Amino acid sequence: MRIDLLRHGDTGRERYLDGRSDPPLSEMGWRQFAKQTQDGAWRHIVCSPRARARAAADDLARRSGTVVHIDPDWSELDFGRWDGRSRDEIAARPDHAALLQAFYADPTAFTAPGGESWVSLRDRVGRALDGLTTEPELSPVLIVTHGGAIRAALSLILNWPLRSLWSLRINPATRITLEIGRGEDDALWGEIIEIIQP
Fold it and tell me: 23-62, pLDDT tens digit by residue?
């Protein structure tokens, strides 16, 4: 089945760890989303419940007559006590600078204080992908989500180790088109068809 993973547009908060915190899309973010979806013809739209993903997905659904399915499994990683704070602010504290470095160096070994682990994020994104692959008639599907959830999906679909997640830049409004499915052994497989940066 064909899926498009689309990160929500700009919120004006570059370098902030916005997981559960939920800033709205900026004007630029709305323009980015419109550009990335202008030629799409999706049968089904899935999105995170966060307003920065949901508002634009709802608007697209109204204009295209498509149904939106809100799935909390596509929410961004919960950054715990770091949520809503900038990376610069966190790194300015000597006791947190090394922790932040560890967070990016090995996501399997370190979780933000009071936050969600990358393994947990990957598990819930896996659950969401399992649900989609049982309904191939929904294809093509647009999934409006977040950078962390997209990285978790790519880890599962392409069998990338979590430590390699930062090797692909996923700017706001990046759209990644993939063909995914299940093999005879029921293992998830996929291939990237296209990557469109805003």
Answer: 999 999 999 999 999 988 999 999 999 999 999 999 999 9
Could you tell me what percent of the chain has a pLDDT over 90?
A: 80
Count how many domains the chain has. Answer: 1
Residue holding tokens 């504290």? 93
Which residue from 138, 74, 81, 131 is spatially nearest to 111, judged by alpha carbons? 81
Q: Which residues touch 82 (CB under 8 Å, ≥6 apart)?
A: 17, 90, 100, 112, 113, 115
Q: Which CA distances in Å does 186 have to 65, 69, 167?
A: 33, 25, 27
Question: How would you class 127 by CB atoms within 10 Å of its CB: exposed for 0-12, middle for 13-18, buried for 19 or more?
Answer: exposed
Q: Identify the domain containing residue 76 by its residue range.
A: 2-196
CATH (domain of 67) = 3.40.50.1240
Q: How many CA atoms are closer than 13 Å to the CA of 89, on its beta-carbon side?
A: 11
* pTM of the model as a whole: 0.95
Strands 44-47 and 141-145: parallel
Angle at CA of residue 13, ends 10 and 19, nearest 5°:
90
DSSP for residue 93:
S
113 Cβ neighbours under 8 A, 6+ residues apart: 80, 81, 82, 99
CB distance 175 to 42 below 8 Å: no
